[in-house]
Amino acid sequence: MNQAFLTKIKTEIVTYARLIRWVNLAMVLVIVFSLRYGLFLPLYSAAKISSPLSHTVFFLVLLSIVLITAAGYVVNDIYDQKIDRLNKPEKLIIGQALSVSRAWMLYFAFNILGLAAGIVAALKIEQPILIWIFVLTFGLLWYYSAYLKRKLFWGNFLVAILSSLVIITPWLFEIYALMHNSDKWIAFFRFYPTMNYIVLSLSLFAFISTLIREIIKDAEDIQGDGAYQYQTLPIVLGWKTSKTIVQALIVLMMILLAVAQYWLRSRHYDFAFYWYFIIQFLSVHLLSTLPAEIHKNQLKRCSTIAKILMLIGILGIYTLTPFLIPKA
Fold first, then answer.
1. From the CB of residue 60, how many other CB atoms can be counted at a distance below 10 Å?
2. Over 90: is that where the pLDDT of 9 sits?
3. Which of 43, 115, 122, 210 could lock onto 163 through a cystine, CB 3.0 to 4.6 A?
4. What is the rounded average pLDDT for all residues in the chain?
5. Secondary structure (3-state) at 249
6. Where are the alpha helices (DSSP H) in 148-237?
């Protein structure tokens, strides 16, 4: 192979990786794997049962989540071509490195494969109702990109909901697979509240941290969004009010986390207790980093802090699991 061909292949790989936000997809992989191997399997082991969900079905669920999420990033960039020329011209892919027609083909391919994987996973555990999770996610991601992201607050809210759904979807598959096997369900029943407590707490954390990040990102993109009459919070309410909302959400998250830490400390779960001080520290750091006026580089830094904060919070699963498993 000549050097020119290798360079072309490398350029295309980098282009596609940037288009599908490979870093964000890697985070999705880490989150879903952490739920499976840091929470669900240890709880099944404590209940002395094997996993009701085979590795094959788990892989299909993971594949579906990743592919549909990737499709969401592609369609978002398709609809944002004009705005991205103003907000981030140096990162523009569709219309430059990649044609619009090829982007649409990629979008439909990801969705078809993602829906197929989700359908097979749901049918393998004889729970066709779970197919609707993937159908709704696909539809809502398109609706967000084509319409809702232009509206006040609701676009941010939907993205936060879909972020928490990354945690809820594997949990639903585990629960439905358990309920389909009566013997395992009976053996696991006393561990069921523990699983729910952790999953729902992490989902709430993912929802709030994503909502914070989405508002910050809207402020970062205010120039292009304003030029195309988007009705985002920073445009409608101004950055000063939007910043106050972000600060309130951060404080709310810190209060809820402090309540969880008190519970952990009262039961001598010291490692988990101290782990979540990392989140508290990052939250304070985020509060102090929020700029008084809109400054793109500073807001980008805040967005990165919020992303790291969410990932570290989810990885806290590994500190919680040994302690939250009820003693026999």
1. 21
2. no
3. 210
4. 88
5. helix
6. 154-179, 182-188, 192-220, 222-227, 233-236
